[in-house]
Amino acid sequence: MDDERRRDIQAPAYPDDTGAADERLGEALAGLARREATYADVLAVLADSRLLVPVVAVLGEVDESGADKTSDMATVLLTGADGRQALLAFTSLEAMAAWRADARPVAVPAADAARAALQDRADALLVDVAGPVTFVVEGEDLYGLGAGWTLARVAGGTAWVRPGEEPPGIGPEGE
C-alpha cells in the first residue's frame, strides 16, 4: 500500500479503561459537593485525569422519503441560557449514560478535552452535566488545562505555570 493511502489507527490512550470514574477525581468532586474541597482541589486532580467525551450521530442528508442518507459523528456543545457554549465531558460511563445512553465515549486526557473545547470556540468544559456533581472549567483555567500547564499552589491561591517557569512568588523576583 502506498504512503498516501496508508492510515494508521492509534492505539487507545486507555486500553484497560473500564469506564469507571477515576477514584481520586470522584473523591474530589464529592468533597466539593460536601464543601470539604475547593474548586482548585478538583481542578488539580482533573488535570491528571481521564475524561469521556461523548460523540453522537448527527443527521447529514435525507432522501426524498425522509430516510437517513448520511450521518456524521460529532462531539456535543451545550449552549447555556446566556448563549455561551460548553463542551461536554464525563467522569464515567455511568455519568454519561445518565445524560444520554446512546452517546459513544471517547476516552481522553482532561487536557485534550479542554483543548478540544478551545478549538470548538467553546467558553467552558462542562463535566458531568447530569451529575452527580457538575464541574465547570472556563476562562484562564480552561486555557491552562488545555495548554497542559501545571496548576501550582501559591500565596493567595493557585496559578498556572508554563513548563520551564517558576511559580509566581518563587525565585529571584519573589525572594
Structure description:
- It is a single chain.
- The protein starts with 22 loop residues before the first helix and ends in a 14-residue tail after the last strand.
- It has one domain (23-59, 70-161).
- Helix 1 packs antiparallel against helix 2 (39-46) and helix 4 (110-119) crosses helix 5.
- The protein has 175 residues and is an alpha+beta fold.
- Helix content is 26%, strand content 27%.
- The chain has five helices and nine strands, in the order ααββββαβαββαββ.
- A hairpin with a 5-residue loop joins strand 3 (77-79) and strand 4.
- It has a four-stranded mixed sheet with strand order 3-4-6-7. Strands 2-1-5 form a three-stranded antiparallel sheet.
- The protein has helices spanning 23-33, 39-46, 93-99, 110-119, 139-147, and strands at 50-59, 71-75, 77-79, 85-89, 104-109, 124-127, 135-138, 150-154, 157-161.
